[in-house]
Amino acid sequence: MGRDAPVLCDGNEARVLTGSELGRGFGSHMATEGRFDNPHTFDSRNGPVLPQRLHRLSSLPWFECWEQQLRTEKKSKHTIRAYSVAARDFSITCLPQEEKMEWNEVKSLTVEDFHKRANPILGRMDAWLNGLGEMRPASINARIAAAAHLLKWLGFVVPEWVQRPARRKSLPRPLGRTEVIRLRSAAMRVEDPLANPVVTTMLDTGLRVSELCNLDIDDIDHEDLSALVIGGKGEKDRTVLFTKVTTEALDSWYPIRSMRSNLIQNEADERALFLSSRGRRINPRSIQKMIDKLADEADIPRSRLSPHTLRHTFATGLLERGADLVTIQRLLGHASIATTRVYLEISDQTLREIYHRVQNLPELSEFDVDETTEKEIESELTIH
């Protein structure tokens, strides 16, 4: 073997790359959904070699290049922000006898230099993970997912010893009929003019709180009784439906919105459907505060009520009234119908009852939940 011959490490074996393999360019890039070809070449003197697909980026700042990769994959702004925080904490983690570096300094490193720093063999991954022990399993999983994406982009394989903690799938219990009535009544009684249109819209459409906040006036079609959700989860557009009750609630809101529009200072807020008393587009945190006050007014425990509870109540109500899973899936904006089924906690027996109620069909086989479905369910539980 030549002293500097490139070596392919595949599992526990190492061999010299052939000329044909070098010609094909190991490490060719697959940008779709964050998948990359990861066989790693090693230089006998300098260790891991930068993947061929990153050679043209080798002298550029790694963080900017990686962020662009995330945008290319159409990750949401929330996901990019979460990945960036995890990447920051991982990359500034110090090793023994290593001089501490600030984030601004680390993120300015070139792709080639950061590739050497991020090498999981050095132990930075271990040191970083040891500091995550006090976090919730869902938070740890999210950070590991971000670090795994970064390592794969750099051409590394995530160490086999990295184990994700068990996910705790806890879905909010939907509101009962009496609770819904009390909530709607409370929303109409309180002084906040946003309460009734917001609660009514969420209960009638099943929108995520982030989607509600991003609604513009132009997205509402009162004649068609529908709204266009632009750039929902996964940057996917979809149409949601609503009722005349929703229209009436929005009509009562428009005069107040018109007055608040005089306070708008940010051009991006000019088309917002829902505005705060300061003329700003509403945000998820303000909605949660409103829901907490409504919970007190409606005599519902705050722990029982959240924006996501309203979405869950909407979906459960559709199911109870006989809507099929495909319809509910489309209205909720789930990428997989498997997510819809687990999201609604539908047992095999319930599925059989639904099918037999419509027509006499053979019994359903067992329904497996794959990793993609688990991730979508987990993301549903995060307030965006």
Question: How are the SSEs placed, and which strands pair?
Answer:
Blueprint: E1 7-10, E2 13-16, H1 19-24, E3 40-43, E4 47-48, H2 62-72, H3 77-91, H4 103-106, H5 111-117, H6 124-130, H7 137-154, H8 177-189, H9 195-205, H10 209-213, E5 220-221, E6 226-229, E7 238-241, H11 244-260, H12 284-297, H13 307-320, H14 325-332, H15 337-343, H16 348-358, H17 371-380
Antiparallel strand pairs: 1-2, 1-3, 3-4, 5-6, 6-7
CATH architecture of the largest domain: Orthogonal Bundle
Instruction: Determine and state the CATH class of the largest domain.
Output: Mainly Alpha
- Count every beta strand, where a strand is a DSSP E run of 2 or more residues: 7
Low-confidence stretches: 1-33, 41-45, 359-369
Structural class: alpha+beta
Brief account:
With 384 residues, the protein is an alpha+beta fold. 46% of the residues lie in helices and 6% in strands. The chain folds into 2 domains: 27-40 and 48-154, no CATH class; 177-380, hpI Integrase, Chain A (Orthogonal Bundle), CATH 1.10.443.10.
